[in-house]
Amino acid sequence: MSGWSALRAYAALPATTGPWYLVITLLGRIPASMGQLGSLLLVSGATGSLALGGATAAAFAVGQATGGPIIGKSADRYGHRPTGLVAALLHALALVLLVVCVEQDAPTWAALASSVVAGASVPQVGPLSRARWTALAHHGRLPANRFPTAMSFEGTSDEFAFVLGPALVGIIATATSPRTAVLMAAALTATACVSFALHPTATLVTRGGEKDGAATAPVLRVPVFLLAAGLAGLGCYFGSVQAGVTWRAVDAGSEGAAGLIYAILGLSSALAGVFVPMLPASFPLARRLQAGFALLAVLSLPLAIVGGLSIGGLWPLGLLIVLPGITIAPILVTAYTQAEMTVPVQRISWVMTLLTSSVVIGYAIGALLSGTLADRYGPLAAFLVALGAACVGVTASGLGRRRLAALRPG
């Protein structure tokens, strides 16, 4: 498939899934990116304590990281429809309960518990959607040469949701209140995520309980671990860069600019993700993953120097953050494409949610570590942690290059 033919393959995706599937999956990802910031603004605004708001947001992240693989494993065992419905309804109810706890001045533990449940029940639309594309490919309804295009669409959708979710929270919270923003996330969950759970593609994912050869096929645990380690490094990179950018914005007296600058990272990644199918088949996935992490580290150097040494104002950060952004979606698309080859199709939901949780865990580590170091030593410490996180990805993909190169579809 030529480069431009690969791009034209995007237009063929709706014919495989139905016209509304792509819209539903995009909308269904947005609540997950709204919950953490929404809970922070809700609690800190009501209590006047940024520390308590941060603890609530952290509880949401911990719940999301631990609950993701559980939801994925349940989806493999019981099916996407029942698992998706339970997760969506529980998530929406937990968000509403969080609002009630804050409004009624309930004990702190009640708000934290609600946030944990809300995080643990995030419907995992992105990972489960990737599992459905894998099932479509195994059923022969998605040609093999279009699977990379489907994965690129998924990566681009993740990045757009990553940008749109916090932006919506900020707009709604400013125009009305943080409570309205959290309730909007609950409403979107009850509509888009429920629609995703009920979509006909949910029935294509074979349950792991069925007794056939594929169901008993082994999981390639070392490649899964290597991919998870690499994406944990990528998540740590996200958290560290956000901490460094936030320090610079606060120091300049423009706190709101931090979100805008960081959003550019997601936008440049989303745009780069669109063109991933144009990469030649002669560029193997294992080599592509290692090259992506190496390029991430190299292209982050100007950002680390300018941001860490406080050279110029904030606008250079907005320009330089575009450079590492163009490597992120290709890394994610490549990692998830390889993940599809590490497990039988009956366990694909589990491995997809595991990788997503690895990113979340890495982000939490990066944000905590870099925020602490930046408070003590300045922004350079945060950007150095980001470079180190990129090197973790280089190391994981390099150590496992031979094993990852041996992976084959199916």
TrEMBL record:
Q: What keywords would UniProt list here?
A: Membrane, Transmembrane, Transmembrane helix
Q: Which residues form the Major facilitator superfamily (MFS) profile domain?
A: 296-410
Provide a GO CC annotation, any one. Answer: plasma membrane
PROSITE patterns for this protein: MFS
**Record keyword Ribosomal protein present:** no
* GO-annotated molecular function: transmembrane transporter activity
Spell out where the chain crosses the membrane.
6-28, 40-63, 83-102, 160-177, 183-206, 218-240, 260-279, 291-311, 317-336, 348-369, 381-400
Q: Which cellular compartments is it found in?
A: Cell membrane
One of the Pfam families matching this protein, by short name: MFS_1
Q: How does it sit in the membrane?
A: Multi-pass membrane protein
Q: Show which residues constitute the signal peptide.
A: none
PANTHER family given in the database record: MAJOR FACILITATOR SUPERFAMILY (MFS) PROFILE DOMAIN-CONTAINING PROTEIN (PTHR23542:SF1), PTHR23542
State the name under which the record lists this protein. MFS family permease
**Species assigned in the record:** Streptosporangium saharense
Query: Which lineage do the record's taxonomy fields give for this organism?
Result: Bacteria, Bacillati, Actinomycetota, Actinomycetes, Streptosporangiales
